[in-house]
Structure formats: structure tokens, C-alpha cells
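Researcher: I'd like a structural prediction for the single chain below. Treat it as a standalone chain; there are no partners to consider.
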Amino acid sequence: MKRRVLVVDDEEGIRLLYKEELEEEGYEVELAASGEEALERLEKEDDIDLVLLDIKMQGMDGVEVLRKIKERWKDLPVILCTAYPHYKHEFGTWASDAYVVKSSDLRELKDTIKDILARKS
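Model: Treating it as a single chain, here is the predicted structure.
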């Protein structure tokens, strides 16, 4: 059974890159362009195994989305993935299961996803 990852990012190019790269790793990938869309998707689909979440987005930012996910789905792993390393030290990000700085090399992100899903099994 393939593990399902929900990628939440307001940049289409990032969503498509992550989808392609993660599908090559054997994951089933769902996409959401906003925090609101991600929460709607999680309400409808109960078989998401992990959320990959950007912080800086239009509308509801990733920290607010993270808070709402953890209130409703406490055991759902969330990885914050952002271009801004300084957010790692902000209290609101501590509820995430991991924090990865966006890079053209996706090895750290892929390794983090694999580690978190292995612990969840």
C-alpha cells in the first residue's frame, strides 16, 4: 500500500516538483494550493499519512494550518518546509514533526519523510 502525502504550497512549481520527486520515491501525492484547501482535503480524505506544509502562503499561513491540523488530527505528521530558516525558532512551528529548509537538493526532505513514516508504522 502506497503512503499518501499531502503537499501544501501556494507556488505551483514547488507543488509539481515535490509531486514528481515524491512519486518517484513510491508515494501517492495529493496537492493543495492553500491552507484552506488542505484542511478541506483532510476533512474529506482520512487516509493521508503525512502533510508537507509551506509556512509563507497567502491567506492562512502554514503556522495557523499546522495548529488546526494538530487540534483535529493529533497523530498526523506534519513537516514544515520553507525557504526561511529563521522560522524554525518561532514557538508556533514547534508542533511540527520536522522542519526542512527548501533546497534544490531534495535528499534531506525525502529522508525526513521516510524517517517519520517509518516511525509512524
